[in-house]
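Slide 14.
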Amino acid sequence: MDKKATGTGKLYGVGVGPGDPELLTLKALRILSNVSIIFVPQTKNEGEGFARSIIAGQVENPEQKIAGLLFPMVKGEAQLAPHWEKAAGSIWQHLESGKDCAF
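Slide 15: predicted structure.
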């Protein structure tokens, strides 16, 4: 999972397909299986979120973590920018410590 003891980890962008967990690509499954943390978007503070519900059954390694990042369904860059910055900071914290991550 953590291939580097030092240096910056890699961030992988992974599409979860049309919504059926059985339709994830082999490449997506490989990446999701090999990263330390998987970040998923969610629209509310509570609740699972659509992407998490698709991958939840595919992540079997108890050492892996799935973390939600809040992206509220509102218009306007001024309202969204703080959420984008917080999400970027959360991801960067793990990358900076050398962990590979997926979003």
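Speaker note: The beta strands are 11-12, 37-42, 65-70, 101-102.
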